[in-house]
Amino acid sequence: MKITRALISVSDKKGIAEFARALEKQGVDIISTGGTAELLRKKGVPVREMSSFTGYPEVLEGRVKTLHPRVHGGLLYKRSNPKHEKEAREQGFEPIDLVVVNLYPFEQTIAKPDVTLAEAIENIDIGGPSMIRSAAKNYESVAVVVDPADYNLVLETMRDNEGETTLKLRERLAIKAFIKTSSYDRAISTFLNQEQTTDASFSLTMPLVTHLRYGENPHQKAALYGDFDRHFEKLHGKDLSFNNILDISAATSLIGDFEEATVAILKHTNPCGVGSDPDLRQAWEKAFATDKQAPFGGIIICNREIDESLAKVISEIFSEVIIAPEFSAEARTILQKKKNLRLIRLLAPPAELLPKKDICSVCGGLLVQEPDTDAEEKERVVSKRQPTQSELEAMRFGWRVVKHVKSNAIVYAAPDRTLAIGAGQMSRVDSSRIAIWKAQEAGLSLKGSAIASDAFFPFADGLIAAAHAGATCAIQPGGSMRDEEVITAADEREMAMIFTGVRHFRH
Predict the structure, then answer these.
(1) CATH number at residue 169
(2) Could you tell me which of 77, 88, 111, 452 has the fewest CB atoms within 10 Å of its CB?
């Protein structure tokens, strides 16, 4: 279908003047609205105002300008249908062969921390989605462009086909258009549902980032959707796998809980060791000392630039992925010698990259919850003995780590490092025993350490095992029917204990 007339009305004006100028040079009649028309005229592109095309002025502060039979008639009539052709002539419908529309920035508007409901509602586009849907429905005759990234593709197709677009291109653009309007409506309904909770259904549409070689195992197909590539930049190495991406997400979530210079090592989304120190190499030594076996083939993440000194030491072990906000030139030279190692740059502070929803597929549906962040924790000393400052720092360090360990989770910690981690056992006392065994294997003493538990101790046995291992203090949510027994066990061993009132299960 040859493009003779285009309707252009965009919120995002990036590249639109150049696109419109290229269309005009091919003899395309351009209709436009408001700010878009003003911009095109300033750039020397001839343009007809929408009110001139429809014969009706823009009214209600611009709320009504494209909702007109001449617009939708020009988009929707079937070019090959004699009855439609006849009615179009009788009604004075001029064919519109190309629609270029992107919508009011509703999602950007509601992302503002101080956005009001009234402001959000004013940024709900009505005419734009209507034109997009009309054009997309009639894609046999009309091309619709909702993404500036497609401008060049449309122009190239027109140049190669004497001003015409192909059916294959129009169909592809129509699918993209319907996905866009669906996503836009979903953002609106989700926002309004948060303002006033209803029984609305949950739905989600995300763009494809990439197909993956396979999923968690080689026989499973997999793909990545969303905007992952806007937050993480791969600087070196093979393509990321399904498991790499899971680990990167877990590592980013963990490091987001630390403001001080910190290094963390993870394996299968579980922390192997975490250390903090102004000298990142020392932070690494603390993290690595926790467990020198598990990090093989693991993930390393830092919240500071990786320099040459750190790169030299971490290059001595095999890692799948190393993540940092930046890598010095010397560090990259060292690490890029390993062709299979992926280097990932964080493009924003880790705390800003956390998902807004936690979604898990289950038989028959999806579980959707808020992420485990910003819990209102109220530390309460429940033991007779008050913790020392050093014990308090150790408990808080362990508490930040334990929320990222699979339940049942136990972490033994010092003020600036993990000493032992027990993850994912069916009983809490087993997690404690495994952590103690790991510390013995690593040659680390737990004397004077803090024990952190992601959920309450259901019995005193877990706490008693920790005391026997050398722990002098404990931090846990509390809330067990046997809290008093556990507190008594702590007092009998002169342990300090804090209840936080918040649980951090991680299944």
Answers:
(1) 3.40.50.1380
(2) 111
